[in-house]
Amino acid sequence: MKNEARRGLLKNGFLVGLGSFFGVTFKRLAMAKSAFKATPAEVEGPFYPVKLPRDQDYDLTHITGRTGVAQGSSILIAGRVMDTEGWAIEGARVEIWQANAAGRYLHPKDANPAKIDPDFQGFAAVLTDVSGAFLFKTVFPGAYPASLSWVRPPHIHFKITHKRYATLITQMYFPDHPLNADDLLLGAKSPEEQALMIARKEASSGTLTKYKHTIVLENRW
Ligand SMILES: [Fe+2]
Predict the structure, then answer these.
(1) Does 105 participate in catalysis according to the annotation?
(2) For residue 197, what is the enclosing H or E element?
């Protein structure tokens, strides 16, 4: 299984720069305990859904049974889940939840007066494929006030679970956003940790902006 997953990674070109690295020094890499840094954990925050929505599919911009489309700029988030040795993790459950484009969560305790978008799903859960890949279509989340003096930059909450790995709760940020620099949560991380939590912007795919994000889970052993 591990070899299949590795081939998947290489075939998909996800770790192009590491392909030869794997090929040449695989033995050494396999012995290394932490070839890759684990994605830093972050607080779950107060807005994990009280009740999970019926529609939890990868597309948060459309709710089954409704004709409308979520407001805001639609984006794609294409990611991978791997472990600190570089193995793709198949079958990881990746949950995301986020504010809508106006900065409002689908949560009864969200005091932000911004409007709820009835066409925004707010939450999704998918399983990674054999190469550890996952994909979400969503909207660019709005910034929102966390206190009178603190505005949270756009971010997406992630929870990744897999029976062989410790559960990771974290947040993904967007590159070059002006609010990143003043965020109290992101600012509490080291520059190296911050880099692991900020997605990479890819060329637009049609009308959609695409972001790539790698999530690394700590090996249990
Ligand atoms: Fe949040």
Answers:
(1) yes
(2) helix 191-197
Tens-place pLDDT, residues 19-75: 433 433 333 344 456 689 999 999 999 999 999 999 999 999 999 999 999 999 999
Domain count for the chain, please give it. 1
Catalytic option among 105, 165, 173, 211: 105
Smallest CA-to-CA distance from 34 within 87, 93, 81 is with 87
Ligand 1 centroid vs 104 CA: distance in angstroms? 9
Q: Helix (H, G, I), strand (E, B), or coil: what is residue 43?
A: coil
Pull the structure tokens for residue 51.
Answer: 């009740």
**Block residue for tokens 């009835």:** 118
Please write the tens of the pLDDT for every residue from 85-134.
999 999 999 999 999 999 999 999 999 999 999 999 999 999 999 999 99
Among the listed residues 155, 165, 173, 211, the single catalytic one is 155
Q: Output the domain CATH number for residue 187.
A: 2.60.130.10
Distance 68 CA to ligand 1 centre (A): 24
Range of the domain at 187: 2-217
